[in-house]
Amino acid sequence: MRESAAQPFFLYAAFTLPHFASTEEDPDGLTVPTTESYSNKDWEEKSKKYAAMVHRLDADVGRIVALIDEMGLRENTLIIFTSDNGGNNTVPAELNTNGPLRGFKRDLTEGGIRVPFIASWPGTIPTDSTSDEIISFQDMLPTFTQLAGVKLPKRKQTDGINILPALKGDELPERTTPLYWDYGHTRGDQYAQAVRLGKWKGIRNYHSGDFHLYDLSEDIHEEHDVAKVNAEVVARMIEIMDQEMVPNDRYQLGTIYKGKAIWRKEK
Fold first, then answer.
1. Core-most of 5, 125, 139, 211, by most CB within 10 Å?
2. Is 267 a domain residue?
3. What is the DSSP code (8-state) at residue 105?
């Protein structure tokens, strides 16, 4: 950042913390920060290590923000903090990592795909403001290019939208494409798909054909399946799911992926 302070810059800081909470040294050489600050807590060891990782992440993000302040760029910099997935099911229950949300990382219920999104930009984003607008990672590129004053080539258009209005407290324009997810190694060894249309959230088990529909405006925990009384919504979502399943030689539709993680060190 210091080297780029005189010109517009983009920094992507991809932290892995918090990512695991083993009580012993990780076999792949990964370690967790010291748990000394939690020595007086009546927690199991992995809870202390998870808390230590969260604390370390908070401190490292703080260092980035402090440097931006030091360079005098705070009011000219948009800072976004978010995550790529929900909490892990191995995190101790007392930490309540997903709050009221159902499911965890690798699930297509809200506990797997709804994540924190914190944006800060003094003078542009109102302090202590919140928004109920639905946004997605596919919205990041259109937002950043809008801020940079550039246009994407037609061959590189995305399904995302510019979310700057939501950051400023306004409503977003209606999306022309739905929000869609699929996952080949969900819990229970099943290939699953999900679609979000406004307040509606649909999840389909591709192999069994089971379809579940939830009204997230009233049922954030996804406990009450209302598919049977909303046939038109279900039909529209199934149509979207079928359309979004684009053949790809590297990602065979319906395949359940298993095996060793590619990042692990060779033994």
1. 139
2. no
3. T
Same domain, 94 and 9: yes
Q: Find residue 62's DSSP bridge partners.
A: none
Q: Closest by alpha carbon to 41, among 27, 55, 25? A: 55
CB 180 within 8 A of CB 163: no
Structure tokens given for 220: 């954030």
267 residues of the chain, pLDDT tens digit each: 999 999 999 999 999 888 765 555 556 656 677 888 889 999 888 888 888 888 999 999 999 999 999 999 999 999 999 999 998 887 777 778 889 999 998 899 999 999 999 999 999 999 999 999 999 999 999 999 999 999 888 888 888 999 999 999 999 998 888 999 988 765 556 789 999 999 999 999 887 889 999 999 999 999 999 999 999 999 999 999 999 887 777 666 656 556 555 444 444
- Give the end of a domain, one of 120, 143, 158: 120
Three-state DSSP state, 26: coil
Instruction: Quote the number of domains for the chain.
Output: 2
212: left (phi over 0), alpha (psi -120 to 50) or beta: beta
- Residue span of the structural domain in which 54 resides: 2-120
Q: Which amino acid type is present at position 37?
A: S
Q: Which residue has the tokens 């529909």?
A: 213
CATH code for the domain of 195: 3.30.1120.10
Please state, as a whole number, how many other Cβ atoms lie within 10 Å of the Cβ of residue 43.
Answer: 16
Which residue, among 31, 69, 67, has the nearest Cα to 52 in the 3D structure? 31
Radius of gyration of the chain (CA): 21
Q: 167 phi and psi, to 5 degrees?
A: -65, -30
In a domain, 14, yes or no: yes
